[in-house]
Structures are given as C-alpha cells and as structure tokens.
Design a protein that fits this description.
about 160 residues; mainly beta; Pnp Oxidase, Chain A; three-stranded antiparallel beta sheet; binds flavin mononucleotide
C-alpha cells in the first residue's frame, strides 16, 4: 500500500481508495415541476435513532442538485439485487423509471416498487460538504422487507454472499 496525499493529481487514486468501502445503492426521489425526479446515490448513511435521522450527499455539480436541496420532502429507496439496471438508468436520467411505475402517496412522497426498504424524509439540515452537500433527513415513515441487497464496491455491482455465522 503506497500512501498518497489526496490532490487534483491523485484524484483517481483517491476515488479508488474510497471505492474500497462497500455500500448499498439507494434511489432518492423528490418532486420537480409536479413530476418525480430521482437520483441514484450510494452516499446514504444512518445518523441518529432518536430523533430518526439519515443522510445522503448530492453533488453540487449535478443538474438535479437544486431540486433535492430545495425539496420539502423526499423518499429514499434501498435497491434490491435485481434492481441494478434501474439504478443505472436513474443515474443517467432522473425521470427514466422505465416500466416501474412510481406512485405518489397521499402525503406527497414517491414510492419506487420492488425496493428492499424505503424512508420518507423531511429536510432536517443541509451542510456544506465540499463539492457535495450533506443533506440530513428526518424519517417520518419507513418500511422494509426481506431480500438480497444490491452491493456497490470498487465501481462494480454485486450481491451479498452470506457465509454462515
Ligand atoms: C452507484 C452510484 C452511486 C452514486 N452516488 C451518488 C451520490 O452519492 N451522490 C451524487 O450526487 N451522485 C451519485 N451518483 C451519480 C448520480 O446518480 C447522477 O448520475 C449524477 O448526479 C449526474 O446527474 P446529472 O447528469 O443530472 O448531472 C451515483 C451514481 C451511481 C451509479
């Protein structure tokens, strides 16, 4: 392991090092001009149990940044192993839900079918995070189901192989 200082010259190496942290993949959906707008995100993390807080980080350079920064509510969906293509499509275009119909709940949250878990959030705080913002959401409602998660690691997608414990 060769140490380096993160700098513009070592940006690739820094991304690679960060990519060694395995995450799940989530899709965040907010309303934009009366329509659902999605973004695929692996910066999701739990923050607090009481109050119930989670965070995620949209890039300031994303064309969708303003929508999520200004959103008065959003829903976060944890993708299942069979939702890789959906995650890739929504990374490219925030409105390309394909055949997956997103429903709007009576409280104005959008719901992506087939996910492993969802969290309906109201904005709690927005912090500066360099070229990203750190958005903290207060969870109003949540649900989950059993199933295999989509895993993202080293720029690749996979699923979870459980070795018996
Ligand atoms: C697996 C995966 C994880 C991602 N995680 C984030 C993230 O945490 N934050 C973010 O701003 N964009 C993330 N992106 C990129 C966005 O989904 C999207 O592609 C980006 O905002 C570009 O949007 P634009 O073309 O509308 O500018 C991720 C993409 C993928 C495929």
């Amino acid at each position: 392991m060769e140490p380096f200082h993160p700098s513009p010259e070592t940006a690739r190496a820094f991304r690679d090092a960060l990519g060694h942290y395995a995450t799940g993949v989530t899709v965040v959906i907010a309303e934009s001009d009366g329509q659902p707008l999605a973004i695929t995100v692996n910066s999701f993390a739990s923050v607090s149990l009481d109050p119930p807080l989670v965070l995620w980080c949209p890039a300031k350079g994303s064309s969708r940044f303003a929508t999520f920064l200004d959103a008065d509510r959003y829903s976060i969906h944890v993708l299942a192993a069979d939702q890789r293509d959906l995650g890739l499509r929504l990374a490219r275009s925030g409105s390309d839900f394909g055949r997956d119909r997103v429903e709007r709940t009576e409280h104005g949250f959008y719901r992506l079918p087939g996910c492993l878990a969802w969290f309906e959030c109201l904005p709690h705080a927005a912090h500066d995070g360099g070229d990203h913002a750190i958005l903290v959401g207060q969870v109003q409602r949540a649900a989950c189901r059993p199933g295999d998660p989509l895993i993202f690691w080293g720029g690749r997608y996979g699923d979870f192989l459980q070795h018996g414990i």
